[in-house]
């Protein structure tokens, strides 16, 4: 179907407006990190790099970043294992109730974060009697990170089918050899994309983390705690600017490798 020139111009202009609406606020965050003022006021009263130096020497931010990286890496790793196993079970084997099971697996990401946080807090603190710590944050994040991996792997399994695996078995390959040389190369892009997106999802989670962290402070919680402290406001701008830039990397990698191996 051919679109008229007028409609194409309208669609192009609308796309530009949507992109500007999404990314101009992020640009303001980056510009404010060089603002000589101690507030979030715009336009900047001057240009300085002193806040970047202060952020680089802020021990609280570094400790929070380390905790966030540990939680993200552990949650993404657990999600890769559990989400991949669930996708294989539902896609490759005859099971009763596949649709209800698939719905239950994907449900955590559709629930409001505050509901998940309250449920996790009640389970850990009241039912199990655990102290809230880094471990409880990892477990809580894994529950919704699984969904990202599960969806990526299941979609790839649907597209690839089982013909190559069956051919490999017919030629005498063991189950491990078939997985190593046939199945894994087919899933590599989906696993990488799912793992990176799961890490990114965990990295900026704040609602569920607040209910399960206890005294542990991840970077989003540290930013929220210091957001309205006058002495910390410029450092918050710098941290937010760095996160804005760094957040592009895993999404870009996931999109590139996911598309290349689709």
H/E series: HHHHHHHHHHHH
Q: How many domain regions?
A: 1
Indicate the CATH topology.
MetI-like fold
Strand content: under 5%
End-to-end CA span: 26 Å
Helix coverage percent of residues? over 70%
Shape: globular
CATH class: Mainly Alpha
Estimated structural class: mainly alpha
Molecular structure report:
There is one protein chain. The protein contains 12 helices and no strands. α4 crosses α6 (134-160) and α8 packs antiparallel against α12 (248-260). With 262 residues, the chain is mostly helical. The protein has a single domain, classed as MetI-like fold. The chain is globular and about 70 Å long.
Q: What would a concise description of this structure say?
A:
With 262 residues, the chain is mostly helical.
Q: How are the secondary structure elements laid out?
A:
Blueprint: H1 5-32, H2 50-56, H3 59-92, H4 98-110, H5 113-127, H6 134-160, H7 163-170, H8 175-203, H9 207-212, H10 219-226, H11 233-246, H12 248-260
Helix pairs in contact: 1-11, 2-11, 3-6, 3-8, 3-10, 4-6, 6-8, 7-8, 8-12
Descriptive terms for the model:
262 residues, mainly alpha, MetI-like fold, 77% helix, 0% strand
